[in-house]
Design goal:
- The chain has 20 helices and no strands.
- The chain has 3 domains: about 25-170, Up-down Bundle (Four Helix Bundle (Hemerythrin (Met), subunit A)); about 180-305, Hemerythrin-like (Four Helix Bundle (Hemerythrin (Met), subunit A), Up-down Bundle); about 315-450, Hemerythrin-like (Four Helix Bundle (Hemerythrin (Met), subunit A)).
- It has helices spanning about 25-35, 40, 50-65, 70, 80-110, 115-140, 145-170, 175-180, 185-190, 195-210, 215-220, 220-250, 255-280, 285-305, 310-315, 325, 335-360, 365-395, 400-420, 430-450.
- By secondary structure, it is mainly alpha-helical.
């Protein structure tokens, strides 16, 4: 088992800077930023770090910035609602950026990554720029317009593609981390979750078994202990691979053939390691590193291709007609009233999608669609109010960011309703997809960490 991976980069090297002379790529990047309206328009020019939380934050911050397009579409109305929406977008951007930068700086400190001082300086500059824009807006010196959006987006994309990529790119730190990690918590930062509980629990369990190889080396009777660990690993892998393969087949998810090949290779390697243990030729530390490297690479790259939320949206979420079809992919929080409200709101979203799919262009359904939108917005407001009350009582650290996300979703749904009923917007499959992805992702990434411990 020899996954290819580059040698760690030198932390002391200088961060690459874009040339002062505009290249064809520079012009293309600038054009994409100026014309992008949704994440899919701009994703191709934003580099990934392969650190799940950081890449997800980058996507969300980009989407918040792109949400300015929705405000521009209503420019000229000068209603109180329009002014409030401008302020809300800027506040959301500031709150989320502040949270994201704190996360980045913690990871840099925890793992001794490069560019710590430069990152802090850049973070402070960005927050000051947004804060100044908020102040100017609140004092009537600024309206949210295309120039502001482009200025924020240009800074943001340049920061991700140069400084963040240099700091967090996996080659900088993953090899060293894999060699010294002793706990799941140390590796969780670089392991992408699927947010499907059954799959994520198996990924964690397999990682923890592999980490125990370190203890078996030190313990008396180490050979017997290693044999036992490898047999546990094999049994867990066989069961886990069967679950994944059956799920891929049942829902026509992508990547089955490659998954089968990867699973067979992994099980073959485990059998080879068992033979080496019995012959006394196994090098435990090397094998531990190789297993962790293969496993995390597989989870992050192969499993993500099959089970990413975007894949689930296309193959499951948008085509499901009952809660039972969706429920395995929506995490249960464990608080009955919150889980039941999640089910109710998910049902309204599904009903909207079914109405649009079955009666596209039928103006006779406008009254029914208006009613369904009203039900969705009303139920969601009540649900968010309940969550926010609980967060305030518990003094949740993420409350400010969580509330901003609530405002963002309500604003998104309201803009869809307003645009559709006014004839300015067609509820395309892509818009329905965005709404479902946001909802399922919010439950997994915000509600589960916040309320799952109640």
């Amino acid at each position: 088992m020899n996954p290819t991976s580059k040698a760690p980069s030198d932390p002391a090297r200088q961060v690459s800077r874009p040339s002062a002379v505009a290249t064809r790529d520079d012009l293309w990047t600038r054009w994409v930023m100026q014309t992008a309206k949704v994440w899919e328009d701009i994703a191709g020019i934003i580099k990934k770090t392969d650190v799940e939380h950081i890449d997800t934050d980058h996507k969300i911050l980009t989407e918040i910035t792109l949400a300015i397009n929705n405000i521009l579409g209503r420019e000229g109305s000068f209603s109180l609602e329009w002014v409030t929406e401008q302020n809300r977008v800027l506040d959301h951007l500031y709150i989320f950026a502040e949270h994201h930068f704190q996360r980045e700086e913690r990871i840099i400190a925890d793992y001794d990554l490069p560019n710590a001082d430069l990152q802090k300086v850049q973070h402070e500059k960005f927050l000051a720029m947004v804060r100044s824009s908020i102040d100017d807006f609140q004092h009537g010196r600024l309206t949210v317009g295309i120039n502001l959006k482009n200025r924020i987006l240009e800074w943001w994309v340049n920061h991700i593609n140069h400084l963040d990529h240099d700091t967090f790119c996996r080659e900088n730190w993953v090899q060293a981390l894999l060699k010294k990690a002793l706990t799941w918590q140390e590796l969780a930062e670089i392991t992408k979750p699927s947010y499907i509980d059954e799959i994520d629990q198996a990924h964690r369990f397999m990682t923890e078994i592999t980490l125990q190889l370190h203890d078996s080396i030190l313990a008396s009777g180490g050979q017997e202990r290693m044999i036992d660990l490898f047999r546990q690993m094999e049994a867990c892998a066989v069961a886990h691979f069967q679950v994944e393969e059956e799920m891929i087949r049942r829902h026509s998810l992508p990547g089955l053939e490659f998954q089968l090949q990867q699973h067979q290779n992994f099980l073959r390697e485990l059998k080879g390691y068992l033979v080496e243990i019995q012959q006394g030729t196994l090098q435990p530390n090397l094998v531990r590193y190789q297993l962790l490297n293969w496993w995390i690479h597989h989870v992050n790259n192969v499993d993500t291709g099959s089970f990413a939320l975007e894949q689930l949206a296309d193959h499951i979420l948008l085509v499901a007609s009952t809660w039972e079809e969706l429920s395995p992919f929506i995490r249960r929080i464990g608080v009955a009233v919150i889980d039941e409200e999640h089910r109710t709101i998910t049902g309204y979203i599904m009903e909207l999608n079914q109405m649009f799919a079955a009666h596209a262009g039928d103006t006779r359904l406008y009254a029914s669609l208006q009613q369904k939108f009203d039900q969705l917005i009303s139920s969601t407001r009540l649900h968010f109010a309940r969550e926010e009350k609980i967060m305030a009582e518990r003094q949740s650290q993420l409350a400010k960011l969580h509330v901003a996300e609530h405002h963002h979703f309500l604003s998104m749904v309201h803009s869809y309703q307003e645009g559709f009923l006014a004839g300015r917007l067609n509820m395309t499959r892509n818009l329905q997809r965005l709404m479902l992805i946001w909802w399922v992702n919010h439950i997994s990434q915000y509600d589960y960490p916040t309320f799952g411990t109640l």
